């Protein structure tokens, strides 16, 4: 019996390694971006029945695991307040250094509000560079102004 969504994530990661799958292959089968599908497989998004069944087939998951993929998750996957994984820590560092700049420039351009992580898209690509390849991340979120009432 599966007791948590984290157990399903662990099963998926084990099967991904055992089967030699890549996230872009899984995304192609699901028919959505590799960024969203990866987030969903890691437990941060709820899948539709069709999406969950597709993922379940690819990773050879039980019906019980497929059902868990369709449950709205508790979002937030970091095990500690300050991340210790070096790659994730660099994103934390980026927000610590540039967070106030992002906030200031977004407010200057759009007014008082937030960038949605719900109405959101992300694209991660490798960018060739003679000085060493670069990670190109494009994030696009709908601006949601604060309302007065």
Summarize the structure.
The chain is an alpha+beta fold and 149 residues long. It has 2 domains: 5-68, Orthogonal Bundle (434 Repressor (Amino-terminal Domain)); 86-145, Cyanate lyase, C-terminal domain (Cyanate Lyase, Chain: A, domain 2, 2-Layer Sandwich), CATH 3.30.1160.10.
Account of the 3D structure:
- This protein is of the alpha+beta class.
- Helices cover 49% and strands 18% of the residues.
- It has helices at 5-19, 23-30, 34-41, 49-59, 63-68, 86-110, and strands spanning 113-127, 134-145.
- It has a two-stranded antiparallel sheet.
Sheet-strand content, in percent, reads 15-25%
Low-confidence stretches: none
CA-CA gap between termini? 48 Å
What is the CATH architecture descriptor of the largest domain? Orthogonal Bundle
| Structural class computed from helices and strand pairing | alpha+beta
What proportion of the residues is helical, as a percent range? 40-55%
Query: How many runs of DSSP E, i.e. beta strands?
Result: 2
CATH topology of the largest domain: 434 Repressor (Amino-terminal Domain)
């Amino acid at each position: 019996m599966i007791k948590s969504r984290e157990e399903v994530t662990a099963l998926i990661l084990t099967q991904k390694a055992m089967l030699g799958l890549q996230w872009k292959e899984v995304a192609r089968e699901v028919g959505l971006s590799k960024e969203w599908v990866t987030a969903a497989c890691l437990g941060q998004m709820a899948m539709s029945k069709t999406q969950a069944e597709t993922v379940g087939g690819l990773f050879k998951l039980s019906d019980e695991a497929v059902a868990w993929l369709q449950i709205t998750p508790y979002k937030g996957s970091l095990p500690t307040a300050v991340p210790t994984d070096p790659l994730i820590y660099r994103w934390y560092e980026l927000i610590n250094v540039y967070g106030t700049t992002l906030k200031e420039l977004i407010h200057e351009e759009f007014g008082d509000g937030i960038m949605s992580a719900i109405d959101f898209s992300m694209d991660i690509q490798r960018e060739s560079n003679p000085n060493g390849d670069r990670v190109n991340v494009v994030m696009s979120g709908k601006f949601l102004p604060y309302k007065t009432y």
